[in-house]
Amino acid sequence: MQFWDIWKKPEAVAGIYIHIPFCRKICYYCDFYKSRSLSRKRDFLQALLKEISFRKDYLTDEKIETVYFGGGTPSVLTAAETGRLLDTLAGEFSFSGAPEITFECNPEDLTEGYLTDLRKTGINRLSIGCQSFYDKHLQLMNRRHDAKKAEESVLLAEKTGFQNISVDLIYGLPEMTPEEWEYNLTVALSLPVKHLSAYILTIEKKTVFHKWLQKGKITLPKDGDVINQYKLLVEKTKAEGMLHYEISNFGRENYFSRHNLLYWQGKRYLGLGPAAHSYDGVSRQWNISALDKYIEGIRTGKPYFEKEIPDRKMQFDEYILTSMRTMWGADFHWLKAHFHAGITQSFEKTMKKWKQTGHVREEDGHFILTDEGILLSDRILSECMAV
Ligand SMILES: C[S@@+](CC[C@H](N)C(=O)[O-])C[C@H]1O[C@@H](n2cnc3c(N)ncnc32)[C@H](O)[C@@H]1O
Ligand code: SF4
Predict the structure, then answer these.
(1) What CA–CA distance (Å, rounded) separates 381 from 347?
(2) Phi, psi (degrees; rounded to nearest 5) at 146
(3) pLDDT for the residue 265
(4) How far is the CA of 33 from the centre of ligand 1 (A)?
(5) In this structure, are strands 195-200 and 165-171 parallel, antiparallel, or unpaired?
(6) pLDDT at 329 over 50
(7) How many angstroms does the Cα of residue 141 sit away from the middle of ligand 2?
(8) Is 286 exposed, middle or buried (0-12, 13-18, 19+ CB in 10 A)?
(9) Strands 284-287 and 305-308
């Protein structure tokens, strides 16, 4: 039996992730792998097309159920470039009947003409990085668009025929007031969106925000204020009929991100482009996080990547870290059937402790974080780790 097979749908399906490592402007909070210069975009696309054919045997037994263009900013690609990538994938892989094809975009790139052309390529899900509907927040974050464009872009996406739209928001921003966060949520939920990803601001090393925080140029809201912002998020999305299916993700029924579900179900996936990760059911590998080296490696036929085979303890930790972030929680029957008693007994003890305090609940043999538990998820999950 394979790792995580209890979660697996009977069909053999897999996903493809494509990393587009370019951004026209760098946001002050972000440490995703990207380059501000687009001078190597052409070379990159050539390398990517070559990588698709190099790696076509990575997923041979499965139908491709999802494709996810992430970044960076995929919307720096023209619709023609995107279409060429999708056509090449379609030539090399076997797709399921109705694949989900997601494209992350920056609102500033979304014109009516561009969206209309994107639709024709087969893209059927957009993830739009609105982040906030206040100009002052967007300027502070160094975003490329303003609040008006953030709102307009979602409406334009709907107008041009996209009906599966997700929006990204960030909360816990410096000096963000409860009223401002409430307004952002109200606007986002009044737009034609099926899905919302709301991330708490994380201060990443080597970002401008990190430097500013150290110098005292920005201050973060107090923990209690951020907790209240999170509670409001849970409340308002629920009132709108969205399901809180993962810590940062909310979706209407049948509109959860199928690509993310596939990761959490332990399905195989192929990651293309610099910094992209792949999983073949046994080993994990990740491409080099350096554009020039990525291009050179593909050109010379010796791609740069690293690979590891997770041991049992690492597999246990990965399952806990992903499953416990979802509304389905960790399946204890399955854990007991797949891992030795030393690991599972200690996990059960930790779960029972947090159950008594109301941070974990048990349902059909699954341990699930409660809303209170999600607030302490870092601490609870670190206590569960086997490594
Ligand atoms: C790759 S970006 C999305 C697409 C596009 N690049 C954009 O920003 O419009 C993924 C999302 O991660 C979130 N994000 C990135 N860094 C973050 C951080 N340090 N804290 C919180 N959210 C972050 C943002 O909401 C962002 O939209
Ligand atoms: S948040 Fe998006 S646009 Fe901003 S730097 Fe990160 S990847 Fe680029």
Answers:
(1) 10
(2) -105, 180
(3) 84
(4) 11
(5) parallel
(6) yes
(7) 10
(8) middle
(9) antiparallel
What confidence score (pLDDT) does residue 10 get?
Answer: 52
Distances (CA, A) of 359 to 133, 168, 350: 33, 27, 11
- Dihedral of CA atoms 196, 202, 207, 211 in degrees, nearest 10, equals 140
Q: Which residues contact 206 (CB under 8 A, 6 or more apart)?
A: 31
Could you read off the pLDDT of 34-83 as tens digits, one per residue?
999 999 999 999 999 999 999 999 998 899 999 999 999 999 999 999 99
Nearest to 167 by CA among 181, 187, 183: 187
Confidence check: pLDDT of 302 > 50: yes
Which tokens is 27 given? 């946001």
Are the C-beta atoms of 197 and 125 separated by less than 8 Å?
Answer: no
Mean of the per-residue pLDDT values for the chain?
A: 94
Ligand 1, atom 27: closest residue by C-alpha:
129
38 CA distance to ligand 2 middle (Å): 14
Cα atoms in the 13 Å half-sphere on the side-chain side of 295: 12
For 242-291, the pLDDT digits (tens) are 999 999 999 999 999 999 999 988 899 999 999 999 999 889 999 999 99
- Which of 25, 28, 32 to mutate for ligand 1's pocket (most ligand atoms within 8 Å of CB)? 32
CA 63 to chain centre: 21
User: Which amino acids bring their CB within 6 angstroms of ligand 1?
Assistant: 29-30, 32, 70-71, 73, 104, 106, 129, 131, 168, 170, 199, 201-202, 204
Domains of the chain, CATH where assigned: 5-264 (3.20.20.70), 312-384 (1.10.10)
